[in-house]
Specification:
The chain has 128 residues and is an alpha+beta fold. Strand 2 and strand 3 form a beta hairpin. Strands 1, 2, 3, 4 and 5 form a 5-stranded antiparallel β-sheet that branches. The termini are far apart.
C-alpha cells in the first residue's frame, strides 16, 4: 500500500451579496505539509454568477480569484503574502473573512498524491 500523508483543503466561495448568504463554489485549495504541497484550482461559472448577482463584476471577481494559485506558489512577484513561508500562506488563504471571496471551513484527509487529490476535489466541488 502506498504511503499516505495528511492534507487539509478548503473550498473557495464567491458570495456576491453577503447579506443574502448565497454563494458559488469557485475554487479549491489543498495543503499537504508533509509533501510541501500548496496549490489551488480556480473555476468560476460566470453565467451562474451573473444569474445570482447581475450587478457583480465577474471579470473583477475572477481576477481576484486568479491570485490564489499565485499565492500558493509563492516566490518572487507574488507580493508580501506570497513571500511568507508555505504554512503561513495556507493559513492566510483559509482565514475567515467577510468579503465577496471567502474560504469555506477546512477539511482533512489522507493522500498518496496531493496533486491528484486536488484535481479530484476540484472535479467534485467545481462542476458546472
Amino acid at each position: 500500500m502506498p504511503e499516505r500523508w495528511p492534507f487539509d483543503y478548503a473550498v473557495v466561495r464567491v458570495v456576491p451579496r453577503i447579506e443574502r448568504g448565497e454563494y458559488l463554489n469557485a475554487g479549491v485549495i489543498l495543503y499537504c505539509r508533509s509533501r510541501r504541497f500548496l496549490a489551488a484550482r480556480i473555476q468560476l461559472d460566470l453565467a451562474r454568477l451573473h444569474a445570482l448577482a447581475p450587478a457583480c463584476d465577474g471579470a473583477d471577481v475572477l481576477a481576484h480569484l486568479n491570485v490564489i494559485p499565485l499565492i500558493c506558489r509563492g516566490g518572487r512577484g507574488t507580493g508580501p503574502i506570497g513571500a511568507l513561508p508555505q504554512p503561513d500562506r495556507w493559513h492566510w488563504l483559509v482565514a475567515p473573512r467577510s468579503t465577496v471571496i471567502q474560504p469555506a471551513p477546512t477539511h482533512g484527509g489522507l493522500s498518496a498524491d496531493p496533486a491528484m487529490d486536488l484535481e479530484r476535489l476540484a472535479a467534485r466541488y467545481l462542476q458546472e
